[in-house]
Amino acid sequence: MAITYDIIKSIAAELYGSCLKKIPEDTKDALKRAHEAETNEGARKILALMLRSAITAETTNRHVCSDAGVPVYFVKIGTAARLDGNIKQAISDGFDHLVETIDPPILKHVTNPLTRERGYKGKDMPLVSYDLIDGADYVEISCSPKALGSGRWAALEIFSFPTLDVIEKYVMDCVLKAGSQHCPPVVIGVGIGGTFDHCAKIAKIATLRPYGQSNPEPVVAAMEERLLAAVNKTGFGPMGTGGDTTALAVNVEYAAGHGFTPVAVCFNCWINRRAGARIYNDGRIERFE
Predict the structure, then answer these.
(1) 92: closest CA among 16, 200, 1?
(2) Domain-located, residue 193
C-alpha cells in the first residue's frame, strides 16, 4: 500500500478541525491540577470556567474560541514511507476542505500583511514545515494553529555568547511585555542557539511537548523549572485576573550554533491547540495530541 493524496488531505482537514473543537487531554488535566492548587479565588473561577468551556465545546461540536488562527502544520516524512500523489498539495486542499465543510464556519483570519486583505487563502498558506525520519514507514503530521493572542507576543533576539542569566532575563522580559494578552495560562516555548530561523522553529516545536515532560538534559530541565516558577510569580494569573497560574509549562530546546546566539520565545494560549497523526504504509492511522 501507499500513503495517498486522499488520505493526507483527509487527515490535514481532520487535525485542524480537532484543534478548534477539542483541547488536548493532558491540557485539561493540567488545568484541573492548576484549579486545585490555585490560591486566588477569582483565578479558580476562571480556571473552572475554562474547563467547562472545553468540555462544552467538545460535547456540542463547537469551537473553543472564535479565533481559529491560521493553519500551521509540521510534517515528518519517513524515509521508508511510500508516497503516492502530491502530498504538499493534499495538505493545502485539506485546509480548503475544512473551510468549506466545518460547522460552525470559521472566520477569515488569513491576512495579506501588505494590503491587510483577509480571507481563507493567501501566499504560503497553510504554513508547513517538513523534516525526515530515518527508517520510518509513516508520515507524521502535527497541526498547531496560531491565533492572534498568543501569536502577537512571540519574540526573538540575537546575543553574543550569553550566559544562562542573560537568556533567562530575556525570557522574563518577553513574559512581562506580554502580560496577560496571550490568554493565560500559557505554554511557553523557548529556543536557544542555531540560526535565526532554526531557533524560532525549535521554540515553536517546544510548545508541542506533552505536559509533564522535562528536557532530558539536567541543565535545561533546571532552567525550565526556574522559569516556570518566575513566570507564575508575576501574578498575572488566568486571563489576567490575578493568581498563581500564568503558565502551565515552560519548555526549552536548544541547538548548537556560533558565537551569535538567537533566543526565541513563543506562547500557546490556554487552549494549547495541537493534534497529530501518523499515517503508515499499511493503512494504519495513529492519532496523538
Answers:
(1) 16
(2) yes
The rounded distance, in Å, linking the Cα atoms of 236 and 185 is 9
Cell numbers linked to 207: 510548545
Positive or negative: CA dihedral 87, 208, 202, 133: negative
- Please give the model's pTM, rounded to 2 decimal places: 0.95
d(CA 289, CA 273): 9
Q: Are residues 142 and 162 in the same domain?
A: no
pLDDT surpasses 90 at 149: no
Domain identity same for 187 and 216: yes
| Euclidean distance between the first and the last CA atom of the chain, given in angstroms as a whole number | 26
Q: Residue 260's domain spans which residues?
A: 148-268
Query: Which pLDDT belongs to residue 88?
Result: 94
Question: How big is the chain, counted in residues?
Answer: 289
